[in-house]
Amino acid sequence: MKGVTRRDFVKSSIAAGVAVALPFSRVRGANDRILVGVVGLGGRGTGAHVPSFENQKGVTVVALSDPDRERMGGAAKTIESKYNHKVEQYVDMRKMFDRKDIDVIGNATQNYWHGLSTIWACQAGKDVYVEKPLSHYIWEGRQMVNAARKYNRIVQCGTQRRSQSSVAEAIRWTQAGNLGSIKYITAFANKPRSSCGRRDTPLPIPDTIDYDLWCGPARKVPIYRNRLQYDCSFDWNTGDGESCNQGVHEVDVARWCLGDPPAFLRKQEGGPRRVMSIGGRFLFNDACNVPNTQIIYYDFPTAPLLYEVHNLRKAKGSNEMPAFRGERVGVIVDCEGGSVSLYRGIAWDNEGKQVKSFSGGGDHFVNFIEAVRSGRREHLNAEVLEGHLSTAVCHTGNISYRLGKKASKEEMRARIQDIPIFNDMFNRLLEHLAAHEIDVDARTVTLGPWLEVDRENECFKDDEQANRLVRGFYREPYVVPDLSG
Question: What is the CATH number of the domain that holds 321?
C-alpha cells in the first residue's frame, strides 16, 4: 500500500475543508542516508528489522542493543557477513539512543519493554518503528502517543496488515455496502503452542545477560519456566497472551473495517462499550499463566467483534489445529448479504458463491521510511495512535479474563444468554475442550465479568480493580513517565 489509502483520505479531507494538523519535521531527500539502531535482537529484530532496513536504499543499520550479549553478538556477525559492514553494540539501549547520528530506532524488544524504550527513543529525537502489541498496559500506550506528539516523532506500530493492499481493498469494498451492512466480525488465532515447563528451581541466568536490564520495567523475579526469552510472552508480568500478542493484528484489521477514520483525524476515541472474556490455561500445567484457550466479546457501537484463541491441537492425540471456516488465523466479516475473509481476500454471498477476490501486498518498513523521509506522520499506515487504540482493545479483553473466576457451565450460559453469536462461539469452546477430555462441569473454565468501558478516558466505569490493570506496574528506575500534561 505504501500509504496510498491514508494519503488519499487526507487529500479528500483537505478538499472537503477538513482541517488536518500535520507535524513539522525535517523533510529528507530520497538520497539522504538514514542511520538505524535496532534494539531487541531476537527472531523479529534479527530476522525482520535488520534486513527490512538494510534492503532499502540509503538506509543502514549502524548499531545494535540487547541485554543479551550473545544474541547481540550473533546479530552483529550476521550483519557483517551479509551486508559487509560492522555495527556498534550496546548492552544498555540508552547509550545507543544518545548517539546523535542515529535517525531511526527499530524496536523489537519484548512487549513489556515497548513503552519505555519507545518513549526514551522519542525523547532522544529518534523516529521509531515499534513492534506490536504497542504497549503492555493501556495507560502506557497513551503515554507513547503523548511522547510522539510532544517530541514530534514519526512512530509506526508493527501491525503490518495495514500496509497490505488486498486487505485495504477488501475493507473499502465491504464498507461500500456491496454485501449490505456489517452484522458482526469474527477474528481468531489457532496457533499451536506448547508448555513452557515448570521447574523446581529457578532458571539459571547466563553471565552473558544483564538480567536487571532484561527485566527493566517488569518485576525482577526468579524464572521457573524452561526458557527465558520468547516464553515471557505467556506470563502476565512480561507478556500479554495470544489474544494480544497475535490478536492485535486481527483486532486492528477488524477495527479498521468497522469504520474508524485514520487516527490522526479522529475527534473522538473508539473502542468497545463493554467487554467480556471466558477461557483458561488447560493441560500445560506449567509456569506460565496466560490463557491458551480464550473467547472474547467486544461490544463496538458499529457491530460486535468476537475473538477466539486456540493454542491446543484440534483434539487429544491430534496434530491438526482447529480452524474457523477453513482458516487457522484470520478475520471474517459477516454482512447481511454474505461474508468477507479479509486475510484470504475473498467474498462470498449467503449461498456460499464467491463474488469477489482481492490481491496485493505491501511493505510496512518501506512505508515507515517513506514517512521518515517526508516528515509527515499521516503518511504512516499504522501511526502510533492506531497501534494504541487496537492494542488497548486487546487489553480490555484480557483484563476481564484476569478479573474472572472459575465458573460452572450454567453460570457462563447465564452471563451470555442474550447474545446468540457469542453463544455460538461458546459452544465451539465447549466442543474444543470436550475433544481434549477437559471436564467443564468441574469448574475448570474462568468466567470474566462484563466490564463497562469509559471510552473517553480509556479506563473502566466504576471498577477500581480493573483500572489498576489499566495503569499497570513499573519497577524503579524503569518507570514510564506521565506525559499527559
Answer: 3.30.360.10
